[in-house]
Design brief:
Helices cover about 35% and strands about 40% of the residues. The chain is of the alpha+beta class. It has one domain (about 1-104): 2-Layer Sandwich (Translation Initiation Factor IF3), CATH 3.30.110.70. The chain has a four-stranded mixed sheet with strand order 1-3-4-2.
Length: about 100
């Protein structure tokens, strides 16, 4: 599965368009990470626990989107975008969406 954030796949021709596909995941904060983030806020620096949480969330949302495209018969997803939203206190959704296509 080819995944890209541009409208085409360089060197390939889009031969079929399947429509919009999406994948999402909702993740909650972790008490231990919140404690460490509070300490890090005092001295500055990267909040590695949250960086890992967001990376895992992006990967899960992308995998779900790619699986939906695969089920439609696509071999690529173009114009991929991400969005986030708060769904409850301490929990957020990470949403990936794009256009499923078949390229040759």
């Amino acid at each position: 599965m080819i995944l890209t954030n541009v409208n085409t796949v360089p060197g390939k021709k889009i031969v079929e368009h399947f429509g919009i596909v999406q994948g999402s995941t909702v993740r909650a904060k972790h008490v231990g990470r919140d404690f460490m983030a509070g300490l890090k806020n005092l001295v500055g620096g990267e909040l590695k626990g949250y960086t890992e949480l967001l990376q895992d969330s992006r990967e899960e949302a992308m995998n779900r989107m790619a699986e939906q495209a695969r089920q439609m018969g696509a071999n690529a997803v173009v114009n991929i975008r991400f969005a986030t939203s708060s769904v409850a206190q301490g929990a957020a959704e990470l949403f990936a969406y794009g256009t499923a296509v078949r390229v040759e």
